[in-house]
C-alpha cells in the first residue's frame, strides 16, 4: 500500500550514522514521567529521518509522531535501537513493524544494557580506580574519565552495529544477549564479592576484660578468627534481604545505617 | 578554612555542567570520582579531592538511576563531601555522612522535575504535527536547561551560602557523633552493593560472589584487578559453556519439530 | 597428677551418658571434641581438655560407624587421651597414641554386644504379637541400658583403677618411644582421611581434592573456612550444572519414547 | 480387599509428626546384628501407628510386625522414612507397597545420608572447630555442640518432610538425591584435601651433613621445595590405596602407623 | 678463565652425542637443562652449569622443532652459554644473549642438512627393491653420522678455537651493552612462550592462561607445581565434562539417524 | 585375492613388539625434506616385517616399499602407529587399507602428540626443574633426565598399545584424542600463564624526579600497582600477536628482543 513512496526513500551515509550515534547523547534531554525518553529520542532521530524522507514531509511527520511514544532504555543501547530504526525506515518497512520492533526491544535491551554498564562496568571501574584514588593518585580519576570517554565514543560503533544489523539480526541478538548477560553476571558477582571484602569496613572495637591484665578483642580474637570481613559480608546480605524480600527503600537503609553507626559509636562498640 | 566567593561560583559552574551530564548520562563526569576531584582542585586541595573521590565513588557504586528511578544525588554528595572535609577539617569518611542530606534533597528536586516536565509533551506534539522542528528542539532541550540552573543555584547555596552555619554545626558535634559519621561512611558502600545484588544476584551466582569475596580476603593486593581477572576468566569459561548448551537446546527443538512433522502428518508413506 | 575417686566416678558417669549417646547417635556428645572437653573440665584442666579435643577429633574424623561397622571407640579415646596427658604430663598428641588400646578394646566390646543382642529379638516379636507394647518397649531399651553400664564400668576401671599401673608404664618409656607416639598422633588423621576417601573419592573428584589441598597449603588462615567456602562454591556450581544435565537426559528419554511409539505402532494414521 | 478398614484410619496431627521425629532418636536403641535397627525403629513408630489404627488392634499388630524387619539406615534419614511410612499407613496403602517402599529406600537413602552427615558435615565441622580448639578456645566444643544440637532438632522437619512427601515424591527424591550427593562429594573432597594439608603432620628431621659446617635439611630443602605437605598427601593416598585396593582393615592401618612412627622415631628420621 | 684442549675435546665429544640425540629426539639430553649441566661439569664448574641450565632451558621452552621446522639450536646455546659465562665471568643471563649467534648458525647448518639428505633417498629405494637390507640400514644411518660430526667440529671450533677472540670481544663491551644482553636473557623466554601460545591458544583457553598467570603472581612458592596442580585439576574437570558432551552429541547423532530411517523408508509398518 | 599368502603370515611375540618400540628411536635417523621420517621409519619396521613375512620375500619388499612414503609424525606417537601397522600386516589386511590408515593417522596423531609432549610436558617439566636449577640444585637436571628417560621407555608400552589396538580402536582413538587434547590445552595454557609470570623478567628502572628528594619509581609505583608482571604478560602477547597474525619469524623476534633490550639498556630505561 506504500508502494508509491518506495522509490523516494534516500540512503543514509556512514557519516549520517556516526552523527546519529553522537546525537543519541540527547536521548534523555526531555526526560519526564509521562513518556520518559520519547522526546529526546525523537530529537536525536530528526536529522536521519529528514534525510531518509527527503521531500516527503508528510511521511516524515508521521514517522516522527510514531517515535514520540513512551520509551525508556539504557543510554548505551539507545544508539543501537536508533540505528536499527533508521535502517528499517530506509528500507520502507511497514510503519507498524518499525514501531512494534522498537517497543518490543527497548525493554529487554535495557535489561542487558543495565546489567553490563551499570552493574558490571561501573562497579569494576569504580573499584579499581578507587583503589588508586584512595592513595591520592591522580591515576584514579584519570583512568575513570578515559574509560567513560571511550564509552561515550562507543555510541558511534554501537549505532553502526544497529544500522547494519537490520531486522534479520534481531533473533540473534536476543539469543546471544542471554549468554552475554549470564557471563556479565558471573563477572559482576565475583567483583562485587571482592568489593564487599575490600570496601565495606566494620571493626568492632569492644574488648572483653577477662582479667585485669588480659583482654580479648572481639574483632581480632572472634570475628577475624572465623573469617576475615565476615561482618561486612553479613551486613551487606542483611541489607540485600531487606531490599529484596522486604522491599525496603534504599534511602531508608542509608538512614538506618547512619543511625545504627551513630548509636554503636555512642555505645563504644564500633 | 572558608570557601571564597570565587570558589563558590566556580563550583556552582562545574555543578551546572556535571548536572547536564547526569541528566543526559553522557560522560559520567557526574560520578563522585570526578566531581570530588574537580571540587578538590577548585578548592586548592586536589589530593583531598581525589581521596574523597575514591571513597564517595564506592559509597555510591550501587546507587544507580536504573529504570528511571533517582538515587541520592551523586553530584551534591561529591561536592559537599569535599567541601565539608575542606572547611571543617574532618576526614572525608566522616564528610560523606554529613553530605548526605544535600544529596537526598537534590534527589527529591530531580524527582519533582521528572513529574512537572510532563507538561512540555503536549507542546512538543503540536510542534511535530506542524513540522516546526526547531521549536520542537528548543522545547525538548528546555528541561535540560532548567535542571542545569537548579544544580548551579542549589550547589552555590550549599557550598557558599550555608558554610558558616555548617561549620558551627559540625564543630559543635561531640566526638562520638563525628566518629559515628566516619563509621557510617565506611559501612555505606554496603547499601550500594546490596542494591547491585538486588538486581544481579540469582541463586546460581552466589558461588561466584563467595569466590570473589574469598579471593579478595586472601589475595593481598592494592586493587581489585586480581579478583576482576579471576571473575573475567570464570565468566569467559561460562560463556563458552552456555553457547554449547544453547546449541544443545536448539538441537532438541529441531528434533521436536521433525518429530511433530513425522508424527502428525506422515503423508510420505 | 592423680585422678581422685570423685573424679573417677564423675568421668564414669559422663561415659555412661556419652555411651548412650553414641549407641543412639543422638547428640554427638560422644565425639572426642566434647568428650575431651568434659573430661578436662572434670579433671580441673579445661584448657587441656579442649586442646586434646581438637587433636583427637581430627584423628577420629574418618573413623565412623557407617554401615553398622564399629570404629575404634571415640569415647574411650577421648577420655583416656585427656586422662593420660593429665596424669603423666605428656602432650595430648602423645597421649592419643597411648589411649588407643583402650579405644580398640571398647570397639571389640561393642562388636560383641551387637552379636549377643540378637537374642532379644525373639522375645520382642512375641510381645508385639501379643500386643504387649510396654514390655516390648522395655526389651528394646534393654541393650541401651547394658551398653551404658559397660561404658561406666570400663571407663572407671581404665581411669581410676589402672592409673598407677599406667603411670609407671608411661614414665618408664624411653624418649624415642614417647616421641614415636607423638608422631603417630600427628599422622593418625591420615587413617581417617583415607577411610573418608575410600567411601567418597571417585576419579572425577580427585581434582577437587587437589584444589582443596593446594588452597589449604597456600591460604594462611587459622581454620578451614576458606577451603570450605571454595568447596561450597564449586559444589554449588556443579549442582546447577548437574541439574541441567539431568534435564537433557530426560529430554533424550522423552524423545526415545516418542521415537519408539511413532516407529513401532503407528496406529494413529 | 481392605476396603472395610478404610474408613477407620485416623489422621495424624502436626504434633504427632513432631513427636515421631523426636522418637526417631530411639532408632538404634535395640541395635543388633540380626536385624540391626528394626526393633528401635518399631519402638519409635508405635505411638503414630496406635493413633492411626485406633480401635483396629489387629491392624496395628500386623503393621508393627511388618516394621520389625531388617533395616539399617542413616539416623538422620530415619525420620524421613518414618514420616513417609506413617503417611502411607494413614492413606491405607497396600501392606506390601508400604513394606517394599521401606525396603527399597532405606539403602539408597542411607548412602546419601552418610555422604552428607558422616562424610561432609562431620569433617567440616570437625576441621573448623578443631582449629579453634587447638588454640584452647572454648568456641571449638561450643560450636560443635550447637551444630549437632541443631542436627538433632532437624529430625523434626525431616519427619514432616517425609510425611508430606508421600509416595509421589519418591521418584523426585531419587532423582535429586544423585545431584545432592554429587555436590556433597565435591564439597567433601575439597575439604578433605584441605584437612590433609592442615592436620596430617609428617616432618622429616634428618639432615644430611655435606661438610662439617654445611648441612642440608631433607624436609626444608627437599620435600618443602617440591610441594608443601607432600608427605602427608602421599601417606594418605598410600593408606587410601591399601584400604580400597587391598581391602586392609583400618585397625591394621592404625597399628601400622604406630609401629612405623615408633620405628622412624627410633631411627631418628621423624 | 680459559678452556683447555682436553676440555674442548670432551665438550666436542659430548656435543657429538647430544647432537645424535637431538637428531633422533631420543633422550632429550639435547635440552639446555642437560647440556649446560654437563658442560659446566666438564669445565669444573657444575653449579654454574646447573644455574645456566635452568635459565637457558626456559629461554628455549617454546623453541621446538614441531612440524619438522628447526628452532635456534639448543645444544650450541647450552654449551656456549656456559662457556662464555665461565671464560668471561659474565652472568649466565648475559651469556645466553651472547651464545645466540652460535645457536642460530647451527640452526642453519641443520636446515642445510635437511635439504641435502634428500639425495640419499634414491639409493635407499634401490637397496630395498633389491632386498639388500643391511646396505639400506647403513644409508639410512648415514645422515645421523654426518650430523654427529658436524656438531663435534662446530662445537670444538666455537669452544676452543674461537675463545680468545670471544674473550677480547666480550671484555671490550661497554656496560650498557652487557647489561642489555642480561636484560634480553630475562625477556627471551617470552619468545618461546609466544610460540607455545601460537600453537595452543584458542580463544576458549585464554581464561586458563589468565588464571595460571594470576595464580603464579600471588602464590609465593619456589616452583610452578602449585600452578601445575591447579591446571591439572581444571583439565581433569574439563575432561569429564567433554566426555559427557561427546556422549550427548553421539546421542543426537543416533536420534538423527533413527529419524532419517523412520522418516525415509518406513518399511516396517 | 591374497588368500594364497594368508596362511604364511607369522605372529609377532610380545618381545618383538617391545623391540619395535625401542627401534622407533631410529624414526628420524634418515630425516630429510623429501620424505621426512620415511627412511628411518622403514628401518625400524624391518625386523617386525621380516618375521611376519617369513619366507615370502616379495611380500616383504612390497610392504617395505609401501612404508617408504612421506611421513612426519610425533616421535612418541610413532611407536603407536608402528605397532598398529604391524598388527595390520600380521592380519593380512589389504595393502591399501594399511597404507591409507598410516597416511590418514600420522597427521592428526602428530598434532595430539605435539600438544602433549612439546607443548604441555616440556614446559611443565622445564618450568619445575628450572626452579630447582636456578638455585643451583642438581635436582633440576636430575629430575629432567629421569622424566625423559621414562618418556623414552614409554615407547615400549605405546607400541604395545598400538599393536593391540588394531583397526577397531581407531575411531575410538580419534574420538578420545580430541578430549585429551582439550584437557592438555587447559593444563598447558594454565602452566604457560604461570611461566610468563615467573620467568619473563622486565623491570623498568626509570624513576621520575618529582622534587629533589622525592622520586617515583615507574615500576613499583605504576606497573606493580596495576598488576604484578603486567609487562611480561603484555610483551608476550605482543610477540604472540606478531607470530600469529603477522606471521613473523621467531628468529626475527629473538633479534628484535635483543636489539630492543640493548637500546633500552642504553637509554637507561630497563
Ligand atoms: O533501566 C533503563 C534506563 O532507565 C533510565 O532511563 C536511565 O536511568 C538509564 O540509565 C537506564 O539504563
Ligand atoms: O550406613 C548407614 C548407617 O549404618 C549404621 O546404622 C549406623 O552406623 C549409621 O550411623 C549409619 O548411617
Ligand atoms: O610435528 C610433528 C613432528 O615433526 C617433526 O618430525 C619433529 O620435529 C617432531 O618432533 C614433531 O613432533
TrEMBL record, chains B, C, E:
Record's keyword annotation contains NADP: no
Family annotation (Pfam families): EII-Sor
InterPro entries per the UniProt record, alphabetical: GatZ_KbaZ_carbometab (IPR050303), PTS_IIC_man (IPR004700)
Alphabetical keyword list: Cell membrane, Membrane, Phosphotransferase system, Sugar transport, Transmembrane, Transmembrane helix, Transport
Topology in the lipid bilayer: Multi-pass membrane protein
Transmembrane parts of this sequence: 6-24, 33-55, 95-117, 138-157, 177-197, 209-237
GO BP annotations, alphabetical order: phosphoenolpyruvate-dependent sugar phosphotransferase system
Subcellular location: Cell membrane
GO cellular component assignments: plasma membrane
Name of the molecule in the record: N-acetylgalactosamine PTS, EIIC
Species per Swiss-Prot/TrEMBL record: Liquorilactobacillus capillatus DSM 19910
Amino acid at each position: 500500500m506504500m508502494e508509491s513512496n518506495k522509490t523516494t526513500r534516500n540512503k543514509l551515509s556512514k557519516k549520517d550514522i556516526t552523527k546519529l550515534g553522537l546525537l543519541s547523547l540527547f536521548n534523555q534531554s526531555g526526560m519526564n514521567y509521562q513518556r520518559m525518553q520519547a522526546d529526546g529520542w525523537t530529537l536525536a532521530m530528526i536529522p536521519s529521518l529528514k534525510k531518509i524522507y527527503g521531500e516527503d514531509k508528510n511521511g516524515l511527520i508521521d514517522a516522527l509522531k510514531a517515535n514520540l511514544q513512551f520509551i525508556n532504555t539504557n543510554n548505551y543501547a539507545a544508539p543501537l535501537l536508533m540505528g536499527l530504526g533508521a535502517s528499517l525506515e530506509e528500507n520502507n518497512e511497514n510503519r507498524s513493524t518499525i514501531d512494534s520492533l522498537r517497543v518490543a526491544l527497548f525493554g529487554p535491551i535495557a535489561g542487558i544494557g543495565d546489567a553490563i554498564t551499570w552493574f558490571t562496568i561501573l562497579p569494576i571501574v569504580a573499584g579499581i580506580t578507587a583503589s588508586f584514588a584512595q592513595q591520592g593518585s591522580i591515576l584514579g580519576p584519570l583512568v575513570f574519565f578515559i574509560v567513560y570517554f571511550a564509552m561515550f565514543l562507543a555510541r558511534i560503533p554501537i549505532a553502526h552495529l544497529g544500522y547494519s544489523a537490520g531486522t534479520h539480526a534481531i533473533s540473534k541478538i536476543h539469543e546471544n544477549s542471554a549468554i552475554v548477560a549470564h557471563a556479565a553476571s558471573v563477572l559482576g558477582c565475583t567483583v562485587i564479592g571482592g568489593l564487599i571484602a575490600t570496601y565495606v569496613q566494620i571493626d568492632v572495637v569492644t574488648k572483653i576484660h577477662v582479667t585485669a591484665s588480659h583482654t580479648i578483642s572481639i574483632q581480632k580474637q572472634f570475628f577475624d578468627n572465623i573469617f576475615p570481613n565476615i561482618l561486612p559480608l553479613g551486613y551487606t546480605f542483611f541489607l540485600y534481604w531487606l531490599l529484596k524480600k522486604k522491599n525496603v527503600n534504599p534511602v531508608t537503609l542509608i538512614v538506618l545505617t547512619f543511625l545504627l553507626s551513630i548509636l554503636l559509636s555512642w555505645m563504644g562498640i564500633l | 578554612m572558608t570557601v571564597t566567593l570565587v570558589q563558590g561560583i566556580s563550583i556552582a559552574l562545574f555543578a551546572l555542567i556535571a548536572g547536564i551530564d547526569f541528566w543526559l548520562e553522557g560522560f559520567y563526569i557526574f560520578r563522585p570520582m570526578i566531581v570530588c576531584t574537580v571540587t578538590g582542585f577548585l578548592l586548592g586541595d586536589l589530593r583531598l579531592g581525589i581521596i574523597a573521590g575514591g571513597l564517595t565513588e564506592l559509597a555510591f557504586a550501587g546507587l544507580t538511576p536504573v529504570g528511571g528511578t533517582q538515587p541520592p544525588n551523586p553530584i551534591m554528595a561529591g561536592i559537599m563531601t569535599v567541601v565539608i572535609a575542606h572547611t571543617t577539617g574532618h576526614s572525608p569518611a566522616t564528610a560523606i555522612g554529613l553530605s548526605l542530606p544535600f544529596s537526598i534533597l537534590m534527589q527529591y528536586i530531580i524527582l519533582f522535575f521528572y513529574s512537572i516536565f510532563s507538561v512540555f509533551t503536549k507542546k512538543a506534539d503540536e510542534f511535530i504535527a506542524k513540522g516546526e522542528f526547531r521549536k520542537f528542539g528548543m522545547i525538548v532541550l528546555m528541561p535540560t536547561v532548567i535542571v542545569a540552573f537548579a544544580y548551579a543555584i542549589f550547589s552555590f547555596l550549599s557550598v557558599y551560602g550555608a558554610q558558616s552555619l555548617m561549620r558551627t554545626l559540625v564543630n559543635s558535634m561531640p566526638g562520638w557523633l563525628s566518629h559515628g559519621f566516619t563509621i557510617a561512611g565506611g559501612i555505606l558502600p554496603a547499601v550500594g552493593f546490596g542494591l547491585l545484588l538486588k538486581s544481579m544476584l540469582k541463586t546460581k551466582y552466589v558461588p561466584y560472589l563467595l569466590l570473589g569475596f574469598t579471593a579478595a580476603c586472601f589475595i593481598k593486593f592494592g586493587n581489585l584487578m586480581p579478583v576482576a581477572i579471576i571473575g573475567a576468566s570464570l565468566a569467559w569459561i561460562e560463556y563458552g559453556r552456555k553457547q554449547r548448551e544453547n546449541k544443545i537446546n536448539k538441537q532438541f527443538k529441531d528434533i521436536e519439530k521433525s518429530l511433530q512433522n513425522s508424527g502428525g502428518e506422515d503423508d510420505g508413506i
